Batch of 3 targets.
Target 1
Amino acid sequence: MTIVGHFINGEARSDSERTQDVYNPSTGEVSKQVALASKETVEEAIAAAQAAFPAWRNTPVGKRAAVMFRFKALLEQNADKICQLIGDEHGKICHDAAGELQRGIENVEYACGVGELLKGEHSKNAGPQIDSWSEFQPLGVVTGITPFNFPAMVPLWMYPMAIACGNTFVLKPSERDPSSTLFIASLLKEAGLPDGVMNVVNGDKVAVDTLLEDKRVQAVSFVGSTHIAEYIYTTATANGKRCQALGGAKNHAIVMPDADLDNAVNQLLGAAFGSSGERCMALSVAVAVGDATADALITKMSEGMKALKAGEASDKSNDFGPVITRAHQQKVVGYIDSAEKDGATIAVDGREVSVSGYEDGFFVGATLIDNVTTDMVSYKEEIFGPVLQVIRVDTMEEAMALINEHEYGNGTCIFTRDGEAARYFSDNIQVGMVGINVPLPVPVSYQSFGGWKRSLFGDLYAYGPDAVKFYTRRKTITQRWPSSGVREGVNFSFPS
Amino acid sequence: MTIVGHFINGEARSDSERTQDVYNPSTGEVSKQVALASKETVEEAIAAAQAAFPAWRNTPVGKRAAVMFRFKALLEQNADKICQLIGDEHGKICHDAAGELQRGIENVEYACGVGELLKGEHSKNAGPQIDSWSEFQPLGVVTGITPFNFPAMVPLWMYPMAIACGNTFVLKPSERDPSSTLFIASLLKEAGLPDGVMNVVNGDKVAVDTLLEDKRVQAVSFVGSTHIAEYIYTTATANGKRCQALGGAKNHAIVMPDADLDNAVNQLLGAAFGSSGERCMALSVAVAVGDATADALITKMSEGMKALKAGEASDKSNDFGPVITRAHQQKVVGYIDSAEKDGATIAVDGREVSVSGYEDGFFVGATLIDNVTTDMVSYKEEIFGPVLQVIRVDTMEEAMALINEHEYGNGTCIFTRDGEAARYFSDNIQVGMVGINVPLPVPVSYQSFGGWKRSLFGDLYAYGPDAVKFYTRRKTITQRWPSSGVREGVNFSFPS
Amino acid sequence: MTIVGHFINGEARSDSERTQDVYNPSTGEVSKQVALASKETVEEAIAAAQAAFPAWRNTPVGKRAAVMFRFKALLEQNADKICQLIGDEHGKICHDAAGELQRGIENVEYACGVGELLKGEHSKNAGPQIDSWSEFQPLGVVTGITPFNFPAMVPLWMYPMAIACGNTFVLKPSERDPSSTLFIASLLKEAGLPDGVMNVVNGDKVAVDTLLEDKRVQAVSFVGSTHIAEYIYTTATANGKRCQALGGAKNHAIVMPDADLDNAVNQLLGAAFGSSGERCMALSVAVAVGDATADALITKMSEGMKALKAGEASDKSNDFGPVITRAHQQKVVGYIDSAEKDGATIAVDGREVSVSGYEDGFFVGATLIDNVTTDMVSYKEEIFGPVLQVIRVDTMEEAMALINEHEYGNGTCIFTRDGEAARYFSDNIQVGMVGINVPLPVPVSYQSFGGWKRSLFGDLYAYGPDAVKFYTRRKTITQRWPSSGVREGVNFSFPS
Amino acid sequence: MTIVGHFINGEARSDSERTQDVYNPSTGEVSKQVALASKETVEEAIAAAQAAFPAWRNTPVGKRAAVMFRFKALLEQNADKICQLIGDEHGKICHDAAGELQRGIENVEYACGVGELLKGEHSKNAGPQIDSWSEFQPLGVVTGITPFNFPAMVPLWMYPMAIACGNTFVLKPSERDPSSTLFIASLLKEAGLPDGVMNVVNGDKVAVDTLLEDKRVQAVSFVGSTHIAEYIYTTATANGKRCQALGGAKNHAIVMPDADLDNAVNQLLGAAFGSSGERCMALSVAVAVGDATADALITKMSEGMKALKAGEASDKSNDFGPVITRAHQQKVVGYIDSAEKDGATIAVDGREVSVSGYEDGFFVGATLIDNVTTDMVSYKEEIFGPVLQVIRVDTMEEAMALINEHEYGNGTCIFTRDGEAARYFSDNIQVGMVGINVPLPVPVSYQSFGGWKRSLFGDLYAYGPDAVKFYTRRKTITQRWPSSGVREGVNFSFPS
C-alpha cells in the first residue's frame, strides 16, 4: 500500500516506523498509509530549512518572485491531478476542489507581488543629515500546521508568502488527506526553488510539538479547531515564538424582512452545504427576523434542498461529498439528534442519506433545522457538517446580540437591501469577516483572513498584507555619515 | 506623607490598604508612598474603561485626534513640572528628562495623525459588482505595563495611539517613580478626554496579574526586563490576548579602524553614561576592531570621561544622576567588581564616586572597563548602569559574531565611513535597531521601536505604524447589493 | 485708507503704484485698497523663496512639522480676528467663516503628520547586494493662486503641505478679500517659519502671469473658475511646470422616491444657500425622480426656506450673507430672470430681498426654481448664488445621464436609503466627489479634493495624500557597494 | 514587401494610402513598409477603445490581472521571435533585446498585482456615522506614444498597467521598428483580452496629433526626445488632458579618487556602449575627479574598449549593433568630429569602424573622448551613440555643479566607497535616478521611472506606483445613512 511520506531538503522521504490509515471517505475504505514523522525527522527538516536560509534570504526579491510565477503556472497545469488527490482523500466534489485550488493559487499570485509588498519605510532627514529606514527582513525558519478541510488552499495561504519574503519553511499538513499537499509542495522544486527552502513533514502530535519547541523555528501559523488553536498559541508563545492560530467558527446569516429572499436562499444553499459544511466559513445558522421571514425561508430552503445531491468526488453533477471520517459522520448525526431531542424541528432530514454505489461512504444529507435556540448544544458547538439551523428572532438587535454573544467570531452575513441596516450591522457585529448579501465573505487574496474572539489567537491574520508583516521582522536603521572627508579631498591620496 | 494613588474614570483615587515607599534617589530618602492597587481597584479601572468604550469608539476620528492635539499642548505647557517630578523620583537630570518628555510628545504628535493612519483598504470590484474593504477597528480595553526608567516616555509610546484608535486604556506604571506618569495622564482629562477612556492604576504583581487575566482586557503592551517580559507574554497569550513585550538589551558599538574616532568618542560618552546607563538603548559594550583602535579608544574615552559629572537632577550642569535604588547601586558595583575579578581592566573606576551634598544618593560614577571577554558575567547580563565595557577583536566579522551570539538584540551601532561595511553590518546583524555612526538609534516616532531575539516577544513593535496595527483589529466587509429594485422603480410606490 | 499689501521675506510690503478697491459687501462700501503687485515685486517674492529653499529643504522633517503644530495653535487663538476679516470683505456669516477656518486648520493638522507622509519606498536586495529607494524631495519654489470665496481655507489647502514638504511658497490670493489671507500667512512667522519660506503677493493678471512664466517657479496650484483654470493649466504647463487647476462646478443632488425627505430638505437648505451659494461644492440643482417626489420636495423646501435669513456677517442669527460684488449680484439676478423667461417656475423668489440697515449690500435672497430644463442658460452655467434649481425626471437613469452630460463634475449627491441605488450611483456617476445622503461631500483632510471633467485640470488633487505627491518629486537611488575592502581589512592601515 | 499595419478592435488592419520604409540597420537595406495611419484610422482605434471601456472597467480586478498573468507567459514563450523582430529593425544584439524584453515583462508582472495596487483609502467614522472612501477609477481611453530605442520595453511600461487599471488603450509606437511592438500587442488577444481594449496604430504626426486632440482620449504617456516631449506635453495639456512626457538625457558618472576603478571601468563599458548608446539611461559623460583619476580611467577604458565588438544583431558574441538610421550614424560621427574640432582628445576613435559582411550597416564604433569641456556642442546635446566623453575636474563639488547645470536630469552615478560622499551626492544632485556605484540606475518595476528638469514634463512618472496614479482618477465617496427605518422595523411590512 502507498505510503505518503515527507519532503525534506528537496527529496521525498519516509519514516518507516509509524504510519496511520488514510481513507477514501466516499467508499469508506483505507486507500493509503501516511508516515508519522519522528522527532528526528522533523528536526532534520528544520535543519534543512535552517541551512537553506542564508542563501535564500540574500536571493534578490525578483528571483524569489520568479519562483512564485512558475509555481502558479505549475499549479494550473497540474490542477486536475491535484483535484483528484483532494477528492480521493477528502471527498469534496471536483468542482469544489477546483474552487479551493483557485483560491490557493490566488495566494501564490499575491506572493508574486512581493517586490511591492516588502517595501520598507524610508525617512530622509529624520534628523540633521540623518536618514532612517525600516527594512522588513525574513525571520528564518517558519512553520505551518494545517487542517484536513482545505488541504490545498490553507497551506497555500502560508508558505508562498513566507518563502517569497525570504524565509524557509516546514509544513505539517493534516494526516487525513496528505497527498495533495505533498504533491503541491513538490512542484516548488520544479519551479526552481532551492532545496531545503520548503519542507513537508507528515505526522501527529510528535511532529507538532517538535515544531513548537524547537528554538530554530521562529514563527507558527496554524488553522484548525479552537481547542487546538489555543494549545498551539499558548505553547508557541511560551516558547518565545510569534504565532497566529485560527480556530473554529459558527457563522450566522441574518435574513431581514426586506431581503431579496430568492437570492438569499440561493446563496445559503451553497454556503451551508457546500463541501458538506466542512468549511470554517460555512454558514451554519440562519437568523430570521420575524416569523413571516422565517416561514418563507424554511419553505424556500426546503424546496431548494430537494435538488441537492450528495455523492462521490469525481462526479461533477454532485453538490457535495461525504464528511471526512466515519467518526465525524456519527458526530454530525449526533448533533442533529440532539437538536431534535432539545425541541428543534427537523425541517429537512439528511440523517438517512444513502448514496448508490457508495453505501459505505461517510455521507450525511443536507439538513435543515428550524426553531433552534441558543441553549442547544447543536447551536453552541461547531458541527462542521451539512446542517443549517434556523433561529427565529423578532428584531435585528436580537439577532446581532446572539451573534455577539457566541464564542466564535469568524464570518457572518446579513441579507438586506437597506444601506443603514447594512452599515449598522457591519460596524457593530463582533465578527472578523462580514458579508452584506454575501454569505461566504472570504477576503480576496490582497486582503487578509481572520476571525475575532475565539476564532483567532494572535494579532496578524492569515494571507494578504498581514502575512507580509507576520513573516518579516522590522529592522530600523538610522544613518549619519561623519565629516566630509573623501568628498572634500582629505583622503585624496587614497590609492585608486 | 503624600500617597500617589490611581486615576480611574476621570478621578483621582487611592486604595488605603497597601503602599510602598517612593525614594528620591539623589538623597536616598523616602519622599512619598505609592498605593498598590488591589484586585478590586484594578477591576474597577477595567470596568470604567469597558463602560467608556462604546461611546469612544463611535467618536469621529477627528474628535479623537483633537484630544491628542490638546494633550500635546498641555504636555508642553507643563514640561517643567513633569521634568521635576521625573527628577525627584527617578533622578535623571532635568535636560535628560526634557529629552525624554520630548520623545514622548512626538508619540502624541504621531497619534494626532490617526485619520491618515487608520485608513482601511478598499477594493472596488473585487468580484462582479462586489466591493470589499477592511476596517481597522479598536479592540476595546487595552493595557500597558511600563518601567521606571522612562516614566513619561514609555507610557506615551502606548496610550496616545491606543486611545486615538478608539480603545480605552488601563495603565500600570512603575511603582518606583509613579508621579510624573500619573500627572501626565491626568492632563488628558483637561484635554477633553471623556472619563473612563484613560485610567492609571499603581501597583505590583497583584495589579499586573489582574490585568493579564481579566477577560475584558484585549491586549497588553509591556516594557521592562526580559525575565518579566517573558512572563507577561506567556501569561497574556495563555489568556488569549494579543501581547507585545519588550525586554532587556546589551547594545554593542563596533568601532572600525576607519572611524572618525573623535566623533565616535563624543557619541559614546552620551550613549553609555547618559541617564546613568538606565536605558534599554544605552550603549554598554564597545567592540574595537584592532588593538590600535582599542588603545586609541581607551585613551580618548578616559580623557573624555574626566569631564563627566554625576549629580542631582535639577542641576543642569550635571551629566547624569543616581541610579534608581540602593539595591540597584550595589548591583551595578557588583558587576564592576566581578569584571575586575574575572580579569578585565578597570580603566576608569566609578565605584567610589561621592556627590557633595548628596552623600546618601544612589550614585555610581562613569566606569570604563577594558579587556572584557564574552564569558564574563558582566558581559552576559544587562548592567543598567553607567558602565562601558570594551571588547577587543581582530576583525569586523568577529565583532559581528559576538553581537549575533548574544541573547539580546535591541540596539547596535557601527562607527565607520565605509559604505560597504555599513551595509554589510546593517544587513546581517541580528539586532532590531541599527545605527550607522549613530549610537542610540532610537527610531523616530513614525517608525516603530523593537528589538530582536530575547529583547522583544511578539510580532508588532512599540509605537509608530506597528502600534496602529497592534491596537486595532482588522474587519473585512464584502458587499454585494441584490437586484436593482429601488433604482429601476420596482418599489416606486414607497412612501416618501 | 488702509492699503493691504504683500508679505515678502518675512516682512510686510506694499507697492505704491497700483491698487484696487476692496468692498464690504454687506454695506456696499469701499473699505480698503489692495496693492496690485508689479512684476518686480512678484520676482522679489520668488527670489526670496528661492533663497530660502536650500536651508529649508535641509531642515529636519520634525522641525518643519513643529512649525505646523505652532501654526495650528496660532490659527485657533486668532480665530475671531480671522473670521471678522473674512466677514468684512467676503460677507459670509461668522459661523460660516469659523467653519471655513476649521476646515483650513484641518489641512494644517494633516501637514503636521508630514513625517509619516513623506516616507519613501525602500527596496532591499532589489538586485544582488543592490538596494534601491525612492525619496520624495521638495520641488523648490511653488505657487498658489486662490479665489475669493474661501480666503482662509483654500490657501490652507496648499501652502501648509507644500512648506511641510520642504518647498518655499509664493501665494497670490484673491484681490477681492485679501486681508484674512495675508494675516494668516503672517502668523507663520510667529510660528517660527524662517523668512522667505512663505510669501504673499496681492495682485492681478500681472502677478499671475509673472508666476506662471518665471523659470524658478516649479509648480502651480490654482482654484477658481473653469475659464481661468484652463488658462492657468495651459500656460503653466506650456512653461514646463507641473500644475493642478481646479475650476467650476454644477453640483446636482438626486432625490429618490425612497429618500428620507425631511432629512434631504434640511441638508439641501444648507448646501444650496450656505455662503450664498458661493461655494464650488454648493448644491445648485436638485433632480427629483418622479413628480410625486418633486412636488413634495418643492413644498417642503419652500416651507423650509421661509425661515432663512440673509444678513450681515457678524450677526450669528443670519444664515447667509451678501454675494461678493454688485456686479455679481446683478449676474445672479440675471440668471433667475433668464430661467423665468425660459419657462421655469420661480417657486421662491429672492430677487427683491432687502436687508434692513444694509440696503446697499450685495444681497440676493434664497431662490427656488422649479421645472428647470437642461437647455436653459441658468442650468448650463455656474450661477454661484443662493439659487436652487429643480429638475424633474422620471427615472434615476435619466437623472444620472444629465449629470454625466454636464461639463462639470465636481460634487454630487443622492438621497436614498437603498444600498443598491447608492452603489450604482457612486460607481457610475462622472463626478469626483460623491455623497450618499451627504449633500456637501467635501473630503476630509486626509483624503484629497478634486472634481472630474472640466472641474479639474491635472492629475493630482488638492490637499490630502495627492498634495504630498504634487509638492514633491520622486528621486530613486540605486546603491551597490563594491568589494569588501574596509570590512575585510584591506584598508586596515587607515589613519584612525 | 511586407506592410506593417495596425491592430484595432482585435484585428490586424492596414491603411493602404501612406507608408514609410523600415530598414534593417545592420544591412542598411529597406526590409518592410510601415503603414502610416490616417486621422480616420486613428479615430477608429479610439472609437474601438471607447466602446470597449464600459465592460472592461466593470470586469473584476482579478480577471483583469489574469490577462496579465497569461500575457507574461506568452511573452516568455515568444521571446525569441520578439528579440529577432527587434534585432531586424532596431539592430540591437539579441542578448540586449532579451534584456529589454525582460525589463518589459517585469512591468507586466507588476501589473499582475493590480489588486493590491488599486486599493482605495477607507475612512470609517470620518464624521458622526459618516464613512468616506476614495476609489481609484480608470480614466477611459488613454494613449501611449513610444520611441524606437526600446520597441518592446517602453510600450510595456505603459499599457499593461493602464489596462490592468481598467482603461482601454491606443498605442502609437515608433514607425522605425514597429514589428515587435505590434506582435507583442497581438499576444494580448491570445491572453484573453477583449477586443478593443488594446489597439495599435502606426503612423507619424497625423496619428500623434489626432490622439492629442481627440476629446475621448483622457491621458497621454510619451517617451522620446525633449523637443517632442515638450510639444506633446504642451499640446496634450492645452487639450485638457493629463500628460506625462519623458524626454532626453545626458547622464554623467562621477569617478572619485577612492573608487574601485576596475569595477567602475567594467560598469562604464556596458553603460556607455551597450545598445550603441541609444538609451535614455546611457552613461555618456564620465567626470573624473583629479587628473590621476582621469589618467587611470582613460588608460583602463581604452584597454577595455579593445575587446568591444560591434556587429549584427543575431550574433551573441557582438557587444552592440548599428545605430538606427544612416542619418543618425552621420549625426553621431558629426558630434565626434565637432568635439575633435573643439579641442577634445579622441582617445579611442570609432568613426571608421567597418563590420565585415555588413559594410552598409549603420555602424559607429565605441569612442572615448578626453578633455571634453562644458561649452562643446558634443557635451551640451544628447548624442545617442556609442560615445563616452570624459571631463576632468578638481573636486566633487565641481563635478556636481556641472551636472546640476545641465538642462537634462535623467540619470547619474557616482563611483566611490565613501558613505558620506554617496549620501551628499544623492541628496543634492538634481537628477531623478541616481546610482551609487550603479551606472544604469533604472528603477525596478515596483519603483517608478523619471528624470528631473527637462528630462520629464508632468508630475507622475512612468511605470511603478506612479503609473497607477496616472492611469486612475480619484473618486471620493462620503456616505451617511439616514434614520434606522428598516433596522428598527418601521418598514417591517415590506413584501419579503
Note: The CA atoms of residues 397 and 467 of chain B lie 34 Å apart.
Target 2
Amino acid sequence: MLIEVGISARHVHLSRKDIDILFGPNYQLSVFKDLKQLGQYAANEKVELIGPKCGLNSVRILGPERKKTQVELSATDCIKIGIPVVLRDSGDHKDTPSVKLIGPVGSIELEGGVIVASRHIHVSTETSIKEGINNGDMLCAKITGEREVIFGKVLARVDETFVDELHLDTDEANASFVKNNQKVEVYRCQK
Amino acid sequence: MLIEVGISARHVHLSRKDIDILFGPNYQLSVFKDLKQLGQYAANEKVELIGPKCGLNSVRILGPERKKTQVELSATDCIKIGIPVVLRDSGDHKDTPSVKLIGPVGSIELEGGVIVASRHIHVSTETSIKEGINNGDMLCAKITGEREVIFGKVLARVDETFVDELHLDTDEANASFVKNNQKVEVYRCQK
C-alpha cells in the first residue's frame, strides 16, 4: 500500500504541570498549524533546550498537552548536545536521558523523557482491515529515488482516530531524500 | 559478503592552489590519523566553512592533496548552512553549490564543489574477482539492529589499491545506527 510520509523535526510535548512552569500558570498553547493526526498541532510556543555540550534554540512545542513531557530529537541532535542516543516508542521513557528546558517564564531539569522516536506508521482502523494490518505489526517502507532506502522495523499503530501516515525523523529523511507528504510503498518485509 | 563500514563526517579535500591560499605558500598538510584507504589520511588542519545561513567550525581536511577542492557535507549540514543538497559521486562537481572556506592565512570563495557523497563501496581487485563484482555495479547493504535499514544504490568502485570498505555519511549512520568498522552484509539487490 502507499502511505504519505510525515517528517518529524525535533519537538517537545509538554505536560500541564510543565507548561505552568515554562509559560506560567494555566497558560494555553496556541495553534500554529494543525498536523495530519486528529487534534494534534504545532504550537506557536517554543522552548530552548540545554544539553551537556550545547543547546538547541527555538524547539517547537507540539500540542495538545500530554500526561508526561517528552522530547523527540534526531540522533544527530543527541550527539550534538552531548546526550546518549536512545531509541524508544513514543511514551516509553525507561532509561532515557534528560535535558533542561527553558521557557519564557521558567525552566525545568527533566528526569528522562528525551527519545529518538522509533519509526512507525499510523493506520486507520479502516485501512488496517482493508490491508490486513494488525496493531504492533512490523513492516517495511521503501523510499525510491537517488538515495534509495528500505526502512525495516516500521511499527504499525492502529487506531480509529488515526490518519494513515508514516512518521520518520530528519535523519531518516536526509539519509533517503524522502520529502514530506511523499507517498511511499509500505509492505510486509520478506524474510 | 561482509564489508566494514567507514562513516564519513563532514570534511574537505584541498587542491595545492587552495592550500597555498588557506595555509600559506608550499604549506604541507600533516597526518592526524591514517585512514583505511591506502595513502588517505585525516590531517591535523581544519578550516571554517561559511554558508548563506551560517557556518561550520573546525571542518577537518583529508589528505593528500587533490586536483580539485571538494567539500563533503551531510544533507543535514547543507540544510543548516543554507545551501542546496546535491548528491554526487566524488569528483563530479557539475551544478554543485559553493561555500566560503577560511583558513589561518587566507580565505576562498569556492566555485562549486560542495557535495553530499553518494554511498559507495571500495572493493579491492582481489575481492571483486572472488565475489564477481564489477566496477560500477549497484549493490544493496543491509544494516541490522534496532533501526534496520537496507541501503540501495550502493556504487561499487573497484581498484587494486582499494581496501574493502562501505562509505556512508553521518545522516546514513544516524538513520540506521550503524557504527564505524561494523561489518555489514552487501549483496546484489533483488528486483
Note: Chain A has a mean pLDDT of 97.
Target 3
Amino acid sequence: MEQYNYLLSLCVILMSTKIFSIISRRAQLPQVVGALAAGLFFGPAVLGALTQSFFGIKFCLMPSPLLSRLAELGVIVIMFTAGMETNIQDLRASGKAGFVVALTGVLVPLGMGAGLMYLFEPGVAMTSAIFVGAVLTATSVSITVETLKELGCMSTKSGNTILAAALIDDILGLICLTVITGMAGEKVNLTLVFMKILGFVGFVVIMGLIFYSFMTWSDRSQGSKNLRRYPVMGFALCLFMAWAAETVFGIADIIGAFAAGMIIALSPKGNYIASKFDTIAYLLLTPVFFANIGLEVTIPSMSLNLLLFTLALVVVSVISKLGGCGLGAKLCGLNMHQSYQIGMGMVCRGEVALIVADKGLEMNVINESYMGPIIIMIIICTIITPIFLKDAFKGDKSKEYGISDQFALSDKLDEVTESMLDAETSIYTLLKSRSHE
Amino acid sequence: MEQYNYLLSLCVILMSTKIFSIISRRAQLPQVVGALAAGLFFGPAVLGALTQSFFGIKFCLMPSPLLSRLAELGVIVIMFTAGMETNIQDLRASGKAGFVVALTGVLVPLGMGAGLMYLFEPGVAMTSAIFVGAVLTATSVSITVETLKELGCMSTKSGNTILAAALIDDILGLICLTVITGMAGEKVNLTLVFMKILGFVGFVVIMGLIFYSFMTWSDRSQGSKNLRRYPVMGFALCLFMAWAAETVFGIADIIGAFAAGMIIALSPKGNYIASKFDTIAYLLLTPVFFANIGLEVTIPSMSLNLLLFTLALVVVSVISKLGGCGLGAKLCGLNMHQSYQIGMGMVCRGEVALIVADKGLEMNVINESYMGPIIIMIIICTIITPIFLKDAFKGDKSKEYGISDQFALSDKLDEVTESMLDAETSIYTLLKSRSHE
C-alpha cells in the first residue's frame, strides 16, 4: 500500500497549497506566502511535531525522492517561464533607470548579506558568505507585479521602473549565482570559471540561432497546424539546456532553463509556447516546489543564536533593498517620494531567493540550519511589502501604457478560453438536438 | 553529474516520441505507434543492444524510479481524461447497438484470450489467463477516432456505433479489470470482492455529489473569476480517488481516476477542467508513459515458443474483436457490410490494453516475458486497422451530426487560442508604439 502514498501526498499538496493561497489572498497577502505555509503546516515542522507530541506517532507529509525531483522540475519550469516573460526589447525601452536601480539593488544586499554572515560566523568561507548575500539580491517579479496590479499602479513612472528593475534584477542575480556556483564547484580558478561562462554564452547563442531558424522554418511551412509540437520542442530545449549548463559548463541548471526561456521569447510561436507552461506549472510542479521547501524545514533546530540571526537577516534584507534601490532611483534623478516607492516595491523576495538558497544547500555551501531563517525572511518580506506599498502609492494612479500590461494578457486568456468552451458546448448541444428532430 | 541525467532522459523522451509520432503520422499510422517505437528504439531493446555489441558499453535510455513514477501519473491522467470525455448522456442516446457491440466485443476476446493462455501454458492460474483475456478486450477510443476522422467517416451509422461501442467497451473493460484485480489481491473471496466494488460505487456517488455541489456553489459565487482553482481541485479529486480505489477498496487506481473524470464531466466547468489536462498530458506525462513501456521491453528474452505465442496472440486479438463486434452488430440488425466495418473499427488496441497489461505485471499476474508479445500485438493491431478501415469505408461518407463531433472541438480550440494570442500581441505592440509617439 506504501507505494500508492505518493498519490495522497500530491493530493494533499495540491489542495493545501491552493486553500492556503486563497486564504492568504483574502488576507491581502501574496499567494506565495500561503503556498509556503502549506508545506510548513502539513510537514514535519508543524503537523509532524504536533502529532508526535500528542499521539506519539508522526503523521504528516514527508519529503520523498519523487517530491524533490518534481520540485526540481518545478524550479526549472518556473525559471523557464520567467525567461519567457523577459522581453529584451521592453527592457531596453524602459531605459537606464531600471538598470541603475537593479544594479545598486543587487550590490547593496549582496555586500550587506555577506557582511552579516561574517559578523555571525567569523571565519566562514567566502563563497558561503557571498551565497547568503546572493539570496538577498533577487526581488520577486511575480509578487511585485501582483501587488502593483492590485493597487492599480502598474503604469506609473515608479511602477514601470520597478518592473524593469525587477526583471534586470533577476538576470543580475542569476549572473551572481553563475559566478558563485562556478567558483564553489572546485578550487577557485577564476580564469576557468570565466572561460566556462563565456563558453555557456556561446552555447546559448548557438542554440538560440538553431532554435530560431527551426521555428521560423516550421512556422512558415505549418502555419497554425500541428501546434502541439512547439511546446514539446520548447520543453525539450529547456531540459537540454538545463542539463548542459550543469554538466558541461558547471553552471546552475536553472540558468540554462532561464536562457532557454529567453530564446523562446524571441522565436515565432513564443507566446503560444509560454501560454502552455502556465498550466503544467500551476497544476503540478509549482505547488510541489513550494510545499517541498516547507516540508524540508525543521523548526526544533532553531537555537537562540539562530533566532537572532533570523531577526538580523530580516532587518538587513529590508534595509539593504530599500536603501540600495532607493539610492539608484535618486541617482537617476527621481524625487524622494518616487525613490521610496521604488525601494519599497523591490523589497519583496520570493521564488528566486528560495531557488538560490536551495541551490546553496544542494552544493553544501549554505548550512541546512539557515534554511529556516531564510524562509522566515522571505515570508516577512512578502507580508510587509504589500502593506507598505499600499501606503506609499496612496493616490497615485495613471493610465500610461507600459510593459506592465503584458502581464494582464495571460489572465484574460484563461477567461476567454472558458467562455469559448461554454459557447462551443451550447452550439454543439443545439445542433445535436436539431439533428434529432 | 549522475543526478542531472534525468533532465537529459526527459529531453530525449520528449524529442524522440514527438519525432517518431510525426513520422508515423506521415506514414498514415496512428501516433501511438511512433511513441511506443521511440521507447523501444532508444531503450535497452534496440539502442542498448546495438551499442553493447558494437562498442561494448550500453549507451541508451534506462528505466528509472522517477520515469516509472511519472509514467504511473501519466496513466492516471490518461484514464482521468478518458473519464472526462465519457459523456453518459451521449452514450444513452446512441442506443442499444453500441452496448450490444461492446458487450460481445468484450466477451469474445476475453474468452479467446484466456483460452489461448490455457493452450500455451496448461495449468496456468485462472486469474493469469483471464488477465491476458482482459488485455485483449479494450478497444482504443483515441486511435479509432483518429482513424475515422482522417477518413471523414465519423458520422456514418457504422462510425457512430463504433464510437459508442468503444466508449462502453472501455467501461466494460474496466469493470473486468476491477473484478480481476479484486480477485487477484488475496485468496479469492467473491463476496468480499463484490462488497468492495459495491463500496466503491457508493464512494463514487458520494464523492460525485460532494464535488458537484461544491462546483455548483463555486460557479455561482465566482463565475468566470479565479479559474485556476478548478483544474487544481479536479486533479486533487482524481489523485484522491485513485489512491482510495487502490488502498481502501483494493481496486486499480486507474479506475478511481476514470470515475473522477466521469464526475467532472457532469459538473459545471467540466469542459474547462478537461481542456487543461490536455497540456499536462502531451507535454510531460503521456510521452513518458509510452516511452517507459518501450524502455521496459527486452527483446533477447524472446524464445521460439514466445514468438509462436506472439503470432497466436495477434491472430486471436484480431479475429476475436472482428468476430465479436461483428456478431453484436449483426444481432442488432445491421447489414453484413456495416457489421464488417464495425468489427474492423474495433480491432485497434492502445493505451488501455497497455495499462491493463502493466497492471498485471505490477501485480505479478502476468509474466514479464509476455510484455513483448503484448506490445507487438498492439503495434500490429494499430497498424492494420487504418489500412483495412480505409478499404472498408471506401465511398461511405455522410453529414449526419453525432457524438463524433465532440472530439473535433478540442483540436479547434488550440488553433483559436494561438491566433488569439497573436492578435493580442499585435494589439499590444500597436498600443505600445502609439504611447511612445
Note: Residues 190-222 of chain A form the longest helix (33 residues).
